[in-house]
Amino acid sequence: MPGGGRWWRAVAAIALLLAGGCASFSPPSSNSTKGSDVPAAAPSAPRVLSAADAREGPCIQTTHGCIALNPDVTEGTVKRTICVPGYTKSVRPATSYTNGVKAKLLTEAGIDQSRIGDFELDHIVPLALGGHPRKLSNLVLQPWEGEHGAKRKDSLEVRMHSLVCHGEVGLTEAQACIAENWELCAAKYKRH
Fold this sequence. Notes:
This protein is of the alpha+beta class. The protein has helices spanning 4-18, 87-91, 95-109, 150-165, 171-188, and strands at 47-49, 59-62, 65-68, 119-123, 139-143. The protein has a domain at 70-188. The protein is globular, with a radius of gyration of 17 Å.
């Protein structure tokens, strides 16, 4: 079919936009005032939408859109899902899937494929907190290094997982915190 490649790219771009707009790379933005960890404008509290409310399953509604959640992980199932050792390995998508999505997002962001190793395909709500493993609204490119990098966020993900599994923070609160603005979440839940 002539022009089929362009048609497919247009359909894919529209699908990404409909998926919540979170599947494209954009420089991290700050919701804080200069020199302060206080948000400039307090967004409305994120909330979990049930599968009946959301079009494609449960999600956490944020100011960025609806971030897909794993329907098997709820406040009532954390002890037999995310808090079981090896859980994330059991739901993590294959590298062939994640590398394909990563390459697609790099292309859409205008980033040369030779830089694929500079980025992680990040789960906005981590698998360890019940984020959906494969839905594009829960996937975003994130640089590995730097102030806004994946290595820094990974530390927060481990901390939040521990707090949820020890009953110190509710699952929905942790999901909402990390999905809305993980950097402000890291400031809120600093290591003591």
